[in-house]
Amino acid sequence: MSVQPACASCGKSLEPADRGRPRLYCSRACQAKAYRARRVEAPAGTPEDNDGAPHLTVERIVRAGIVIADAEGLDALSMRRVAMDLGTGTMSLYRHVASKDDLVALMVEAAMADVPLPDSAPRDWRHGLERAAYRDWDLYHRHPWILPRVMVTTRAYFSPALAADSESAFSAFDGLDLEPAEAFRYMFMFASYVQGVALTYVSDMEAERQARIAPAQGAKASNEAQNPLFAPGAYPRLARAMRAGATPWDLDALFASGLAGILDGIAADLARRGIDSRSGGHRNEKSR
Amino acid sequence: MSVQPACASCGKSLEPADRGRPRLYCSRACQAKAYRARRVEAPAGTPEDNDGAPHLTVERIVRAGIVIADAEGLDALSMRRVAMDLGTGTMSLYRHVASKDDLVALMVEAAMADVPLPDSAPRDWRHGLERAAYRDWDLYHRHPWILPRVMVTTRAYFSPALAADSESAFSAFDGLDLEPAEAFRYMFMFASYVQGVALTYVSDMEAERQARIAPAQGAKASNEAQNPLFAPGAYPRLARAMRAGATPWDLDALFASGLAGILDGIAADLARRGIDSRSGGHRNEKSR
DNA sequence: CCCCGGTGGGTACTTTGTACGCACTGGAGC
DNA sequence: GCTCCAGTGCGTACAAAGTACCCACCGGGG
Q1: Which of A7, A15, A189, B175 can pair with B282 through a Cys bridge, CB separation 3.0 to 4.6 Å?
Q2: In whole angstroms, what is the distance from residue B111 CA to residue B103 CA?
Q3: How many CB atoms neighbour CB A249 within 10 A?
Q4: Which residue has the higher pLDDT, A41 or A167?
Q5: B181/B191 Cα distance (integer angstroms)
Q6: Cα(A202)–Cα(A139) distance, integer angstroms
Q7: Cα(A129)–Cα(A106) distance, rounded to whole angstroms?
């Protein structure tokens, strides 16, 4: 994507954007012209007989939003941007979604449906929880923008996708004679860990994107030689641990290792309570 | 608040915010005069109170930002708002902070310094980790806005406060004969859990604030009778667990319970490795 | 007197979400 | 043929946010 110092619509040269943000058009009218030109191939037929190119629908809007958020992050998601990608006017979107928050909530629901829930019963509780953990892990890899939004959106609106996810995870305890409160405590610990690692992953992705946009600052921060974190005497324990455990920074391996630790803890607790975990051996598989 | 349509300095009537924003002064000269008057009024007598504002400084700006973010969330933090609370012009802030991102980064550093690090060696590793966990827990209670920002800010800039926090937590393993890579894995699991619970807490706080602002939607979502989550057959396992474990929703108790589980897991792992888990604080070395 | 560096601040231009109302289009009723 | 209507697209016009630019003021030196 190369930005030229000329209006993308009328071609008129515009100042090198030192005034504020990088600009694409010389005026808002030109921006409007740009998406109208893109809409030429859509002859605005009747709503029912759509010739291959479908009409503006909630599904198309949500899909376009997910594509943008996946590729460029939630910060790049704007109503104008979605409308431009769809070749329509900005305000047309509001015929189908109530607001941007509404759109993001719909995007979360649709994106969570992208990663299918397992349709079979788990072999045992450990298998069930591992399956649930990797399902979420996969989800956050595909749509890293979900995590920061889920945390606000989910509580305001009710999310069927999130509820289904939890329901599926809880099925791991189905065969065990476990009190609901106990199952809830295990699940809380388990889910908090997964969420915490996901937050680190999302943070890494975001930092990487920032570094790509502004390489100077990113390089400065990630340059280990100049990072005071690695100065000889500043933070000795941290530096030693980072050198030993975080080089290379393999978040997938760390996730698996910590997950095994969490599940080992649950297994030990179950054993102490004399509950048959039915899982047989399968102890501590954190070497990987 | 009532905005009188008169210049706060010269008293001349001014048109009622002809272009959107509420105006306080009829001209920049009057605003400058008002600012100067306030400066002279409190020379240096009692600089500890807010009325004894000596100068516009980075510390005052950062403090004002933290007050706003604590009380109303990061969304309410704007440069104009900070300037208004300080009784100065918006652009004056830019003489002391480079940008809003810079301000937030400084706010994070200052807020983390609010919760002091322990200055003594931990009794043993478990005590050290518990101390670190509750230190973070306290931090997120006081400044819930830190978590979403730390995750982006920390990687871009280098955060001494966060590094000191990690360094202090790592001191829990000081006395143990533990390989750095192993300590890092434990710490990763531990920190991820704490972060995950903190995310839930922050989410709750945000939802509460949203509900306060827009009570209609919040009431609708939190009304259990109408929430499909509690519909009889929709999500049976989830509903049963929620009723059992989440009524009342005591996040502090859940945090403590899950933390105990995490530490139990580490203890079991240490025992399996034949490491004396009761040894801990050795020589009294403070992180500088 | 003018000049000059430091600091405060107003203006203006950017981007964003979105309220409002007009334009168009295809079918129903005259 | 016409008008009327309902639905949909979308342009205009805000309000609020960050911030670049430059001017106003003050104190000190020619």
Answers
A1: B175
A2: 12
A3: 10
A4: A167
A5: 15
A6: 11
A7: 27
pTM of the model: 0.79
Buried b (16+ CB within 10 A) or exposed e, B204-224: eebbebbbeeeeeebeebeee
pLDDT digits (tens, 9 = 90+) for A139-163: 999 999 998 776 665 555 677 888 8
| Number of Cβ atoms within 10 Å of the Cβ of B55 | 8
Residue with tokens 């959106």, as numbered in its chain: A153
CA of A71 to C1' of C24 (A): 35
What part of B 189-208 touches A (C-beta under 8 Å)?
Answer: 189, 191-197, 199-200, 202-204, 206-207
Q: Tell which wins on pLDDT, A119 or B189.
A: B189
Residue with tokens 């360094």: B167
The dihedrals phi and psi of B6, each to the nearest 5 degrees, come to: -145, 145
Q: Is A254 left (phi over 0), alpha (psi -120 to 50) or beta?
A: alpha
Q: Give the tens place of pLDDT for each residue, B203-238.
A: 888 888 877 766 554 444 444 444 555 566 777 887
Tokens 């990487």 locate to A208
B-chain CB neighbours of A181 within 8 Å are 241, 244-245
Say whether residue B73 is in contact with chain A using an 8 A CB cutoff: no
- Is A105 buried (19+), middle (13-18) or exposed (0-12) by CB count in 10 A? buried
